[in-house]
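## retry 2 of 3
previous attempt timed out at serialization; input unchanged, resubmitting
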Amino acid sequence: MTNQTGKATQYPLLANPHVQLHGPVDEAMYTSFKTQVINAPAEGPLVVSVTTLGGDPEMARAMGDGIRLIREYTGRDTLFLGKVAVYSAGATFMSAFPVDSRFLTRGSRIMIHERQMQSTIQLNGPLNTLEYTLKAKLHEIEDSIRIQNEGFEALVSGSQVSMDELLEKAPSNWYIEADEAKRLGLVLDVI
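## retry succeeded, writing output
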């Protein structure tokens, strides 16, 4: 077994993340993310740590877009450190980082699942208008699936996990322990 203390010293930047996010992925986390990024050093790699049981996938995508823009406009490296739980929307956020910039702490887990929807469709009105209500909901579902799969593609890009494997396991909540995530190439290392 590798000496974990020695391994951590290989990545000294991960000891003190510039941006530390924890709790539900929501508007409050997004606000905290933006504030911490603004207050982070303007030079060198930007290290972001996350612990979350999940939340709003659109807020995760917005934070991920912020990470992408930092990389593309400044050329800075961005590093992801998942601590304890990187569930649901946390995995969506993680997908914004290249696999060679992702790390997990020992004992952490990633959980990936399909997007969820709860909705009631009320059909009320002239028959000729009801078709539009149903089509609108169908379009919402189709677009949500496209967005979900774009995130899935980003999550597995550069890893040993195929899109087919992810799509097979995601409907039943796929929990991946840190060492397994490393073996699958979803993260660079476990510290």
